[in-house]
Description:
Distance between the termini: 11 Å
Largest sheet: 4 strands, antiparallel
Structural class: alpha+beta
Low-confidence stretches: none
Shape: globular
Amino acid sequence: MALFAVEYTYSEATAAARDEHRPEHRAWLGSLVEAGTVRATGPWVDGSGALILIDVADEAAAHDLMAQDPFARSTLIDAVRITGWTPVMGVFND
């Protein structure tokens, strides 16, 4: 498996809809945390987006997984950046 950093960018225009869909979004993420696929997740402090660290086979799997996010299915994410990440030190080293 490989780690990928998924960066979401949000706009103020989708804030109300994100509030509406947040319970489903967090339940989806929670199930992935329990499965070990999501290693960490949370919004930027300024509300402009979020970071999700995922453990999947490859970049294609990362894109496929993130397309299932309720926020993505409801087109509430303005931009998604998925980048492979190699931790050198810290809690994400196996």
